[in-house]
Amino acid sequence: MGNNTVEATDQNFSEIVGSETPTLVDFWAEWCGPCKMMNEPLEQIATENSGKLTVAKLNVDDNQSTAMNYEVMSIPTLIIFQEGVEKKRLVGARSKAQLESELAEFV
Amino acid sequence: MTEKVIIIGSGPAGLTAAIYASRADLNPLMIEGFNRGGQLMITTDVENYPGFPDGIMGPDLMEQFRKQAERFGTRLITADVTAVDFAQRPFKVWVGQDEYEAGSVIISTGASARWLGIPGEEKLRGYGVSACATCDGFFFRDKEIAVVGGGDSAMEEALFLTKFASKVTIIHRRDEFRASKIMAQRALDHGKIEVMWDTVVEEVLGDQSVSGLKIRNKNTEDVEDIPVDGLFVAIGHDPNTGIFQGQVELDDEGYIIADGTRTSVEGVFAGGDVVDKVYRQAVTAAGMGCAAALDAERWLEEQEAT
Prior knowledge:
The complex is a heterodimer of chains A (107) and B (306). In chain A, helix 2 (33-48) links the parallel strand 2 (23-28) and strand 3 (54-59). Chain A has 107 residues and is α/β, with parallel strands linked by helices. Chain A has helices at 13-17, 33-48, 64-69, 96-103; strands spanning 6-8, 23-28, 54-59, 77-82, 85-91. Chain A contains 4 helices and 5 strands; from the N terminus they run βαβαβαββα. In chain A, strands 1-3-2-4-5 form a 5-stranded mixed beta sheet. Helices cover 24% and strands 27% of the residues of chain B. Chain B has 6 helices and 19 strands. Chain B has helices at 12-23, 58-71, 133-136, 152-161, 181-189, 282-305, and strands at 2-8, 29-31, 45-46, 56-57, 75-77, 83-85, 91-95, 98-107, 111-113, 129-130, 144-148, 167-171, 193-196, 199-205, 212-217, 223-227, 230-233, 237-239, 268-270. In chain B, the strands form 5 sheets. In chain B, strands 1, 2, 5, 6, 7, 8 and 19 form a 7-stranded mixed beta sheet that branches. A 5-stranded parallel beta sheet of chain B has the order 10-17-11-12-13. In chain B, helix 1 (12-23) runs parallel beside helix 2 (58-71), helix 1 packs parallel to helix 6 (282-305) and helix 4 (152-161) packs parallel to helix 5 (181-189). Chain B starts with a strand and ends with a helix. Chains A and B meet through helix 2 of A and helix 3 of B.
């Protein structure tokens, strides 16, 4: 887990995404190769948008009920929440530049 | 600054080329691509790579390759090459606005999974349609899944998916598999796997997520809808050569035409799945990457001598 990202779990999920600050949740797992490619860009985005955007990581192995609630069927899946509401969903790995353009409307 | 060698792509071929080029003091620059590590990054157990009698996970194997390349000084750029110009030397390689020059280039961009190209497939990708069982299988616990294809990767995907799914149906357009005997037999013997022979998928059904498939039997021409929650596509691969069109000679299927590792452009070498449509193994790709680096080294020496 990076320094600037927070760990989301089944227990703290609604608290984390309930914030007024937009929250990007990365649904990932240890066994997912493409998920690992997202670590670096997400860490950078978290650092560069500190205070404007929260980046959270949710391990789908350990937090299956949240993954099921949001009908995640493929990882990496990134969902942007604001005040608890899903605003945008990105399925599949993205480069940092692609992520930045997808996130532009929120930060 | 002109690099001695730029390596494009970071699967087994590219990283082996990097290990050899580094050890030959060519100080290679590898532009590894956003999808670094190549196809092995989306596999699980690799059981046929020599030296690992108990098997190794694909992503772990590629991490080892990468560490070995870095140990000898390979420099890595984790981005996609966007354009190349091989018309004159030094060769030019672009990553967006950044321009790099090189005396020689090794192409090892590999291949990517092919899609069916049928209605509903693209719309439902990530919502039940997948080309990566190891990424997405987890989400199909106790669900019914179809796998399309008849090669080793289709067998691997189907077998892997039995860990999660209640039932896996392999849909294959012929009346026998072209997979290796050991893999085909494992699939045929598995209690959760059924096979529909001589059958093609015509449409993926579903609104928010996959609800079923429209299939057609090629013998009877019967068309029917079958309910499934997921569709995994494993029908082969296409070489990643879009950026090389018009730069080096490609065959009808887009593979780079090479004599050994030499492409149609002197000083540009290629190895791995971007060239090879016959073997397509991690170990053969690694061998070709090694050969490409040795050929590039020899060629650069000849250039300096003249």
